[in-house]
């Protein structure tokens, strides 16, 4: 049963999105199949730690980071990454690696990158934005073009996703995004560039009475966490802007 259960089903189970009958069937399978139970355990732990890691990213700076947070908060942030290292290393046999040396020099003033691959693949990058600050919106597009232009200059293939959730969704909303024209041009120029909106954020905004219309260049994923975890498992590099 282990191999017959898809990753998508496990994501839905961990997120509480399966109905009662499906959940009971999967739980019964976990009781009988240790490998399946281990997959669920690893996925649940990884999702929890990634949620901490991207909510509390480490920042460069002295006593206070660029966002004015005190040193104590940066210690908590590093602990979140340490937890992710621990659960991934012990639970799944992967390693988490910082990638400052492999990215454009200007990238690391506001961002930090991690990967679960034994060796970073510079051709697969996920950029994540979760707020609508003008400088963040500009940063994520500039970073994307740096990666894509660098790959083009070196003659290598590049797959890149920009993932937006929470208020970062405004980057991809028609009538809200200040960069709609630039996004359309980037998407037209780069066939392997994709803009992903968190479906969970769309649903939350809609429930709060906001009308959400995405730009033509954007598509949705069920959840931001699920997209991040899936890409990390596939060996992508994750960068939170």
Structure description:
The protein has 241 residues and is α/β, with parallel strands linked by helices. The chain has a domain of 147 residues: Hypothetical Protein Ychn, Chain: A (3-Layer(aba) Sandwich). The chain contains 8 helices and 7 strands, in the order H-H-H-H-E-E-E-H-E-H-E-H-E-H-E. The chain has a 7-stranded mixed sheet, with helices on both faces. Strand 3, helix 5 and strand 4 form a beta-alpha-beta unit. About 23% of the residues have low confidence.
How is the secondary structure organized here?
Blueprint: H1 7-14, H2 20-32, H3 34-55, H4 71-92, E1 97-98, E2 112-115, E3 124-129, H5 134-154, E4 159-164, H6 180-189, E5 193-198, H7 199-207, E6 218-221, H8 224-233, E7 237-240
Parallel strand pairs: 3-4, 3-7, 4-5, 5-6
Antiparallel strand pairs: 1-2, 2-7
Write down the CATH topology of the domain at 95-241.
Answer: Hypothetical Protein Ychn, Chain: A
Q: What is the typical, i.e. mean, pLDDT?
A: 76
State the end-to-end CA separation. Answer: 39 Å
Helix content: 40-55%
CATH class of the domain at 95-241: Alpha Beta
Strand content: 5-15%
Q: Got a strand count? A: 7
Q: Based on helices, strands and strand pairing, what is the structural class?
A: alpha/beta
Low-confidence stretches: 56-111
Q: What is the helix tally?
A: 8
């Amino acid at each position: 049963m282990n191999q017959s259960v898809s990753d998508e089903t496990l994501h839905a189970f961990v997120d509480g999105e399966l109905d009662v009958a499906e959940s009971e069937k999967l739980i019964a399978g976990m009781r009988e199949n240790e490998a399946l139970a281990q997959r669920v355990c690893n996925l649940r732990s990884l999702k929890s730690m990634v949620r901490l890691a991207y909510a509390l990213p480490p920042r460069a700076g002295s006593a206070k980071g660029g966002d004015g947070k005190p040193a104590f908060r940066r210690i908590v942030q590093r602990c979140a990454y340490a937890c992710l290292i621990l659960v991934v290393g012990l639970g799944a046999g992967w390693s988490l690696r910082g990638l400052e040396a492999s990215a454009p020099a200007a990238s690391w003033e506001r961002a930090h990158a991690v990967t679960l691959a034994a060796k970073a693949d510079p051709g697969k990058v996920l950029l994540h934005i979760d707020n609508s600050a003008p400088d963040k919106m500009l940063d994520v597009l500039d970073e994307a073009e740096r990666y894509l232009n660098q790959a083009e200059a070196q003659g290598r293939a590049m797959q890149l996703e920009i993932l937006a959730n929470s208020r970062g969704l405004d980057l991809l909303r028609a009538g809200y995004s200040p960069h709609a024209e630039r996004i359309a041009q980037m998407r037209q120029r780069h066939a392997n560039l994709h803009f992903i909106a968190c479906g969970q954020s769309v649903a939350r905004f809609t429930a709060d009475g906001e009308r959400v219309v995405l730009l033509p260049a954007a598509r949705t994923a069920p959840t931001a966490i699920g997209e991040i975890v899936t890409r990390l498992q596939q060996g992508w590099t994750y960068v939170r802007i």
